[in-house]
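Budget justification aside, the reviewers requested a transparent look at the raw inputs and outputs of the sequence design task funded under Objective 1. We therefore reproduce one unedited record. The lines immediately below are the C-alpha cells for a 229-residue chain.
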C-alpha cells in the first residue's frame, strides 16, 4: 500500500528531525491505480492516511512550486479532467470537511459542476445575486456573470490553492456557494406551483450548497490557525 501513497506525488521526509513539506519533483498527477488500490472495505485508518498523504503532497508541493510554474498550476486545476472524477473521488470523497483532502474534494466538485452545466448555474447565480450582494463581492466576478465567466471564476478560485492565500480561496468558494444557494431557493419558490418534484430537488440543492459554504468557511478558519491537515 505504500506505493499507492507515493505514486504520482513525491514526498521527502528525513529519518531524523522534523518532517519537511512534500516536494514536487515534477508536475505529477494522480495515478488511476491509486483508486484501484482503495477497495471499499479497506481499513478506514489506512484510507484516511492515503487521502491525507496525497492531498498534502498536492497542496504543499504545488504551493512550493506553483507560483513559478503556471503550467503546473493549470495541470492541478484540471486534475479531474485529466485523471477522472472517479479517481479523485476514490481518494478524497470520504474525507471529512474539516480536513485538507475533504476541502480539496469540495473545491474540485464545485469546479466540475460549473464546467459541466455552466448555463444553469449562471442563471441561478444571477437569481441569487441581488439577495446576496456581500457574498458576491467576496466571490469577485463580473456582474452578472455568464457561463464563461463562471468557468473562468472557478478556475481562478481553484488556482488560488497554489498561488494565493488558501483561506481567502476557501472563503471565495464559500461565498460562491451562498449566492448559488440563494438562487436555487428562489428557483424552487418559482417552481413550487409546478407539477413534479423539481422544486423539492432545488430546495435540497440549496440546503446542500449552504452546508458546503459553511464547510469551506470553516476550513478557511482552520487553515489560518494552522490546523487544516
Amino acid at each position: 500500500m505504500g506505493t499507492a501513497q507515493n505514486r504520482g506525488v513525491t514526498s521527502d521526509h528525513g529519518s531524523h528531525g522534523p518532517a519537511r513539506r512534500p516536494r514536487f519533483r515534477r508536475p505529477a498527477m494522480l495515478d488511476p491505480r491509486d483508486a484501484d488500490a482503495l477497495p471499499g472495505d479497506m481499513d478506514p485508518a489506512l484510507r484516511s492516511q492515503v487521502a491525507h498523504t496525497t492531498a498534502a503532497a498536492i497542496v504543499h508541493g504545488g504551493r512550493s512550486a506553483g507560483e513559478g510554474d503556471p503550467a503546473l498550476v493549470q495541470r492541478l486545476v484540471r486534475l479531474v479532467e485529466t485523471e477522472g472524477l472517479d479517481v479523485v473521488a476514490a481518494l478524497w470523497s470520504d474525507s471529512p470537511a474539516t480536513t485538507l483532502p475533504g476541502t480539496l474534494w469540495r473545491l474540485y466538485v464545485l469546479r466540475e459542476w460549473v464546467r459541466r452545466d455552466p448555463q444553469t448555474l449562471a442563471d441561478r447565480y444571477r437569481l441569487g445575486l441581488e439577495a446576496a450582494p456581500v457574498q458576491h463581492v467576496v466571490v469577485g466576478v463580473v456582474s452578472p456573470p455568464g457561463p464563461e465567466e463562471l468557468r473562468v471564476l472557478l478556475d481562478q478560485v481553484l488556482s488560488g490553492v497554489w498561488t494565493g492565500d488558501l483561506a481567502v480561496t476557501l472563503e471565495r468558494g464559500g461565498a460562491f456557494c451562498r449566492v448559488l444557494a440563494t438562487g436555487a431557493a428562489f428557483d424552487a419558490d418559482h417552481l413550487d406551483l409546478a407539477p413534479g418534484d423539481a422544486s423539492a430537488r432545488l430546495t435540497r440543492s440549496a440546503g446542500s450548497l449552504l452546508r458546503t459554504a459553511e464547510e469551506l468557511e470553516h476550513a478557511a478558519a482552520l487553515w489560518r490557525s494552522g490546523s487544516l491537515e
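Residues 1-16+23-94 form one domain. DSSP finds twelve helices and no strands in the chain. Computational costs for records of this kind are itemized in the attached budget.
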